[in-house]
Amino acid sequence: MPHRQPSIRSDIARSTTDTITVRGRSLPDQILGHMDLATFSYLQLTGHEASPEQARVYNALLIALVEHGLTPSVLAARLTYAGAPEAIQAAIAAGLAGLGNVFVGSTEGAARLLSEGVKNCPRDGSLGTVAERIVADHLDAGLLLPGIGHPLHKPIDPRTPRLWQIAKENGLHGSYVELMNLISVTAERRTGRSLPVNATGAVAALACELGLPWRIVRGLGVMARAIGLVGHILE
To answer: Which class would CATH give 72-234?
Structure first.
């Protein structure tokens, strides 16, 4: 008896001869003209529509990741396009491939620290104690703490207080934001260096406040930075 191959399936979208449905909504009738790109991407990722407050925070954190100047990923995209202008997708891919733990990818590491830190905080404990443990573990192992420090922006990363303000205005300034700030303060005290919460640390905290799993957070940077790379290639 021939082996039956399992069918390929996705619950995200389906199409018929005259309909396209995404996350249970008609693309032509309920999405096009009704949602902006950020709101739609939130629906695509989570399966439910963001509240107005969630949408404002999510939109802000995506915008914060679009442009960072002439970073290695931008240079890779520009140089690849110079050699292969017939394949813009290759240039974008080259730039996105460089989003590691130094640029953008640190959002994932920070989100994981925050997610696990808040989850494992004892009921009778404090986030300050959690921050102390996280910082000590990293410094003792000679590891960089993701989400803090910046080579240019000192004593603060100007994006961070604005993101915190937007989160506070929309009721999403909770335990993850608190822990991210405590990690920064603790690391500065332990090292004697200026280590502000940078944009990737703020994005990680807000992604956690939105309930997004840490494993997907680097993907937010990929989404946003693709826009920035197209802009650089156009320039």
So the answer is: mainly alpha
